[in-house]
Task: structure prediction
Amino acid sequence: MEKILVLGGGVAGLTAARELASKGLSPTLVVPQDYYVSGPSRPLILSGEQSLDRITRGYNFLPKNIEVVYGSVKDVKTEERKVVLSDGRELEYERLIVALGLRYAYDAIKIVDRVYNVYDLGRLFDLKNLVWGISGGTVVVNAPKQPYRCAPAPGETVMIIDMILRHRKVRDKVKLIYVDGNDKPQPPVIADVWLKLFEEAGIEYHLSKQVSEVTESGVVLDDGTEIKADYKVILPPNRPVLFEDWLEVRGPKDLRLKDYDDVYAIGDVAKLPFPKNAEIATQSALNAVAKISEELGLEASYVDYKFSGWAYVGNRSGKLETLSVQFSLDFSEGKPKGSKDPEPKREYTERKDAWEQAVLRKLFGY
Ligand SMILES: Cc1cc2nc3c(=O)[nH]c(=O)nc-3n(C[C@H](O)[C@H](O)[C@H](O)COP(=O)(O)OP(=O)(O)OC[C@H]3O[C@@H](n4cnc5c(N)ncnc54)[C@H](O)[C@@H]3O)c2cc1C
Result:
């Protein structure tokens, strides 16, 4: 049987491994540690509405025909069809699927002070501690220029911080500033919703401005402006894990690398004309497996790229009950078609939770 290696046991890698296994193939999945922490509801950890144990899973409940190798990938030698792990082990392959995701490039901007965000777990818990402790000062929250992972998360972060400060009755003593590297808060389909919410919540915002430096006294933007802030909630530019650049594939439904017939890139690490999120990662994985199936003479079914999402928008009533808006994007006919319900609802927060739990169950088996 063909030796198929899948690098990365997140949304894309696991979807691909499971899909291959369901076709009777026996892929090997390489994961750096024995657990995975889901992303979408991490912002709710700030308000205590989500807990780590509900979004963490291990790899012991995968189908038996997926072999799990624990190790961190250090190098991919495409000419030799080999993957080198950081402990020196080498794994050979006949077909390779790269699903290593992305990293937050703290080295891409000058940072000389402490930074928080909702993406990295340590910084997330530190941010929770901060937001529940402060009773004055200025907090700046940024979104880098696209592409970055999960378009709404920076907007969600500032609105959840706003909610917690209102709940603690200290909102009038803390100034909130939002800086976005894009010309609209993301994703563009709900940009008007964000701007209305920022106005209503008294959040100062700056668009088309990237944070280029974090100093002790605030942040410096790429046009040289300095914004004074005591606390910096910073998502640095996103970069692919291991590689210099996003991996260029032949197309959204042919995810082979440009120069290699036997190497595929899926999920956030791939250069695709779509947002970087879990649904797109899943669809790219299914399409990569469809191509492999076609080549192996198995039944192949390709999928279109589209998704529904929910953005947490906090709650200005003082209650610690995050409301959300719903939006969707459909790329199946070339030009993206967007739709939304701009009315914040509790029900949408619950739907996002049900969706995330269903994704985890499907991927990890519980
Ligand atoms: C805070 C946050 C909020 C989000 N919100 C949403 C949302 O609301 N909706 C949505 O659809 N998506 C959301 N996402 C995005 C979604 O989680 C990602 O787009 C999706 O996980 C991408 O899948 P992936 O498999 O490419 O990457 P990942 O799921 O990150 O998987 C990559 C895997 O590769 C592993 N890996 C990394 N380096 C190595 C190495 N050297 N060797 C071996 N393995 C390695 C990682 O440990 C990980 O297991 C959010 C993400 C975050 C962090």
Residues 135 and 147 are 34 Å apart (CA to CA). The chain has a mean pLDDT of 98.
